[in-house]
Amino acid sequence: MTVSGARHAEPQLRLTRRGRVVLLSLFFAAVALAYVVLLTTASQG
Q1: What is the per-residue pLDDT across 16-38, written as a single tens digit (0 to 9) for each?
Q2: Are 23 and 15 in contact (CB under 8 A)?
Q3: What's the CA gap between 13 and 15, in Å, rounded?
């Protein structure tokens, strides 16, 4: 029994310039948030 189309190659993740900017800004926002959380927890102790 053969199933046609069961094995399909997934397209590579291609990012446009806008997508790259969005990902970078999300990354930097997460870093800034982690930094703020670390500062606030360190100042409480």
Answers
A1: 999 999 999 999 999 999 999 99
A2: yes
A3: 6
For residue 44, how far is the Cα from the chain centroid?
A: 30
What CA–CA distance (Å, rounded) separates 38 from 30? Answer: 12
Q: Is the dihedral of CA 10, 12, 18, 24 positive or negative?
A: positive
DSSP secondary-structure letter at 10?
A: P
Rounded CA Rg of the chain: 21
Structure tokens at 45: 């102790």
pLDDT of residue 43: 87
